[in-house]
Design goal:
The protein is α+β, with helices and mostly antiparallel strands and 597 residues long. The protein has 17 helices and 24 strands. It has an eight-stranded mixed beta sheet with strand order 6-9-10-24-23-22-19-12, with helices on both faces. The protein has a five-stranded mixed β-barrel with strand order 1-2-3-5-4. A five-stranded antiparallel beta sheet has the order 13-14-17-15-16. The longest helix is centred in the first third of the chain and has 23 residues, at 141-163.
Length: 597
Amino acid sequence: MAFEAHFRTHTCGELSTEHTGQQVTLAGWVNRRRDHGGLVFLDMRDRYGMTQVICDPERSPEAHRTASELRSEFVAQVTGTVVPRLPGTENPGLKTGAIEVAADRVVILNPSRTTPFPISDTISVDESLRLKYRYLDLRRPKMRDNIILRHRVVKVIRDYLDELGFLEIETPILMKSTPEGARDYLVPSRLYPGEFYALPQSPQQLKQLLMVAGLDRYFQIARCFRDEDQRSDRQPEFTQLDLEMSFVAEEDVMALIEGLLIFLIEKTTGKRIKQQPFPRLSYKHVMDRYGTDHPDLRFALPLVEISDLAAADSFGVFQGALAAGGRVKGIRVPGAGSYSRKEIEELTGFARMLGAKGLVSLAISPASEIKSPLTKFMTDEEVQAIIDRLQGEAGDLLLFVADSAKVCNDVLFRLRVKLAERLKLIDPGEMALCWVVDFPLLHFDEEGQRYEAEHNPFSGMDDAHLDRLDSDPLNIRAKQYDIICNGYEIGGGSVRINVAAIQHKVFSLMKLDNEQIQEQFGHMLEAFEYGAPPHGGIALGIDRLVMLLADEDSIREVIAFPKTQSALDLLMNAPSPVDDKQLAELHLRIREQEERS
């Protein structure tokens, strides 16, 4: 369905040879003006594309005169006739490249100052300048395409879920502050002095209450807020697909999301999915094999445990780590056996930066000669056993970390990704997705001396493990599932607790007393007493998902107006002070920092 606009009859991306001879009006920005000593060529741009305009003084002296005054990023209107380009001057890189518009009239709608950076995808400019002038940055084709892709992704999601009977239901932005893993953003109440709303970290409790209400298939493109340290794939405010279903088991939710993601990738990109159905991998398996619970499966390079083999030698590095209760793990780097000493030292420096004491190397030359400090402390048979464990071959480099399990995993996980990028093992046209399951329900926080939820306190647990809440809380399997794509967690969910007594017990294990439980979660526990159905759901990170579909390295590239990595809004200059009158209305006073003596 088309509609006509007052300032234009067509966009700058739709004209073709089918429009030859038609009188048209375009409106947009001047991408470039070229003066060929008589003829003036304009590249007119809008969000739909680009059209070349030719201004001939013999055809229209007035249009030619006005066109000569135009500069890049002026807003202009052009009326003229669609004509074919001369043979040999066509531009196959443009949708409109077979035609041009011969101008009869050119109007300057608004001039432009010289922009702080060129409106081009080839620019190299500091991100802070791009964010300060985000409205200019969004004119660039790449940024425009990212915003369009995001729109299409959300539309596909909405249409897909609507077809399956889901209801899109909005939940409040002003909520109650309850502990859910990150710091809340608080909003002071003017009407109730000393009391605060919180911006939602997620609609978790509300979507569960919607299941109690009998609205058994809910979703929302939800805005969420978390006051936490930032990184390339995290923002203080973000968007997620929030979804909940009643009368479902884990596999029901996973099957729904798997179908949605396959459909979404096929509809919005030309990317291939490496494996269907998505592999189901246990938490223990991915931690052992990849050192992380969000592994990138587009390439191999698994981590391999050799603690049992290392125990047999007299190598001090290995023995010291094992004596301290640590482990020894390694990784095989195919074809890197000829790495120079400088290259190995660079990798060692990277490992040390991540917390390792160093890297132990074992290089196998193309002639199968072995070069490693291990040869001084181990027999040929012991060295060969390690090589065999890692499936090392001539020309390979084997790298080892000896430390605590956490350090071994953290260092080798990041080293694995770094090496895959260096060795060009990653196919940019491929997406590797998997499910990680069988998470523990709880872990023990030594500092706080209490149990904490591995994901959130509402996750259900294996029915056969219910009695372990009293006797063995750390060995309870959660009904939890995370969806991983190309090394990023793009979503996570669970089948929930729907029995008040069990939910109360979990809160108690987290060292919340009865008064705290009642104050923070009493509304939820009471709701469970009125017939709460079995239910489960998931949340998918829209920003992170679109980032991966767009082949970007930061979610800031797919958000129209993001914050910086330090949570600053450079465009609006926020956060910023407010005047004393506003503070007084909110019953607040800024406490000045005491001067250092």
